[in-house]
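Note to self: user wants both folds in one dump. Writing first protein now.
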Amino acid sequence: MEGRKGLSTAGLRVIAMATMLADHIGAVFIERVLVANGVRDVLDMSTFSAWNVLYCVLRSAGRIAFPLYIFLMIEGFEKTRSRWKYALRLLLLAVVSEIPFDLAVSLRSKTLTWGNILEFGYQNVIFTLLIGFLCIWCLSYVIKKNMEVKESTDLLRYLTCAASVLTVMVLFMIAAWMLNTDYSYTGVGAIGAMYLLRRYRVWSIGVCCAVLTLMPLNIFEAFCFIAIAPVAHYNGEKGRTNRIINYAFYPAHLLLLWLLAFVCGYVML
């Protein structure tokens, strides 16, 4: 039987991987080229060049990736047979990815030298997804429990549920902020918002993108709204996928980009 028209989970993942790769080519490699050429601000028109343009294009494309990964994670949360195993896989991936992330992304201002191979001051985005996963797991529990209460009126039940949801989201957002994960509390807020509106697919990712853009007041993040288009064409099917590639891609491509920068002489150990 032929699959339905549109994008499967595998198709969305390919788009997420491609845009994340573009983003990290800009952040890991092109940024080092700019620093090596004495550029302190990529948007400084006095030093604007083709490298600056390429950097901005790649980083703009990269804004699409995170909302797609949030959507895919929520789909996984809803459909997985074991949420414990899903959370454990995210934890293992986050730990394994930390050294490649620190090597690749921890570019110090005005220098090509890196700090420690393992940097605890800034954690990779998989930790954000993990915190978000635990957040929506708790949200699903408190919503279910609050809706099961029969003794109170509907208004009181809904108010109690809303207060519980807000409390859970704030606590997990604080956790991401304290750990200083990539996207921090904004990322967890976006995950929670998309989960709560998940029955309304296009609205859910639209609100998620609004959170990612408005909470940090970063207009550059507005390019993430492009992610609405592929999600709108999602057909609900899994498609052909390889779990090893899906999980290995993040740390592997970061490490390879760092090695490329090292071979090209843009990293001094």
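First done. Writing the second protein, which came from a different request thread.
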Amino acid sequence: MNPVKLGKLLLLDLGIVALNVVIFSKALLGTFLGNPIYTPLAILLGLVSVIAFFYFNIKVLFLDKNQPRQVGTSMSDGATFEKYRDTISKFIDGEGFLFDDNLKILLSQLDTLEEKGLAIRKSLGERFSPSELTYGKFVTAVENVEEFMLKNAKGIVQRVQGFDERGYEKAVSDINTSPEVLDERRAILDEYSKYVKHSVDMGDKVLASLDKLQLEISKISTLDEKAGQSKEAVSDLDDIISDIKYYKDGLDKL
């Protein structure tokens, strides 16, 4: 579970307990129990707090974790890994073929990303408590990588979908197409191709950073050793954070 959510849930539970102590403790407002106005109000507040307690605890502990992970708030389409894979696969199976090789690499990157994300979270859960700051820092970094990779994939898909491949093929195959038009068409294809290739290369570099982080986490074999062995992992984590910022800046400029 996300440690931030866990912390918020803990604060909420403590607040509900504190509210009930204030309402029903005879050392506090409980002295007014028996009052015809205060008593019904106290009972109502108590019932509401109990309902809120069970609702939010069940929602966070049992329901939220069964929902598919979605892209971060910077992306409004709510797309999941599966939706991206479906979209890319359909495009590869369609009529076009100019970008298929890079799209297949992108598809593989998303599969790898999801597998690594699950593996790293499992490794962290075996070595750290979810309440530890180190655990939260690692998980946040992984989520940032996932968000970046999905944003990167979204940019590639949108760019590829915007290219008129049928029009390009028609112009190239038509012997009546002027050299000027051909040069213009080829220049446009070259710009699209450079964007797609650059974005795919960025994805490979980010996944390589995640590989290194996973390796260092795997070296933390016991809780007794984690203080010393986690230094390398933290160093790799800082590198990933720096890389993501660099690649995000580069993505925004494309």
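Dump finished. Worth passing along: Residues 3-65 form one domain.
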